[in-house]
């Protein structure tokens, strides 16, 4: 199983790191490393996350860490990280579904 990151997901992860690093660089680095570790854990257990409640599409799942949601797409031979964002927000289906279609 391959792990892939979309441009969107890498951009969002960088935004999160930059925002937190303004106050606490160490915490920002630790958070990003933990999110990457969680994503890598999907290689061996791709269905460990739950189906995203707002979408109810079985191939689009998420892991939650602290205040962040890591949304990913299950494919036959890969897991594709679609986005990372603050957990209080809802998934924007048009962003996820357009991301899904473009890859």
Descriptive overview:
With 103 residues, the protein is of the alpha+beta class. The chain has a single domain (2-102), classed as RelE-like (YaeB-like fold), CATH 3.30.2310.20. 41% of the residues lie in helices and 27% in strands. A 5-stranded mixed beta sheet has the order 1-5-4-3-2, sandwiched between helices. Helix 1 runs antiparallel to helix 2. The two termini are 17 Å apart.
Looking at this structure, what is the CATH superfamily? RelE-like
Reported for the largest beta sheet, the result is:
5 strands, mixed
Radius of gyration: 13 Å
Q: Point out poorly predicted stretches.
A: none
CATH class: Alpha Beta
Strand content: 25-35%
Strand order, main sheet: write it out. 1-5-4-3-2
Please report the total strand number as a whole number.
5
**Helix/strand class:** alpha+beta
- Architecture in CATH? 2-Layer Sandwich
- Chain-averaged pLDDT: 90
Count up the helices. 3
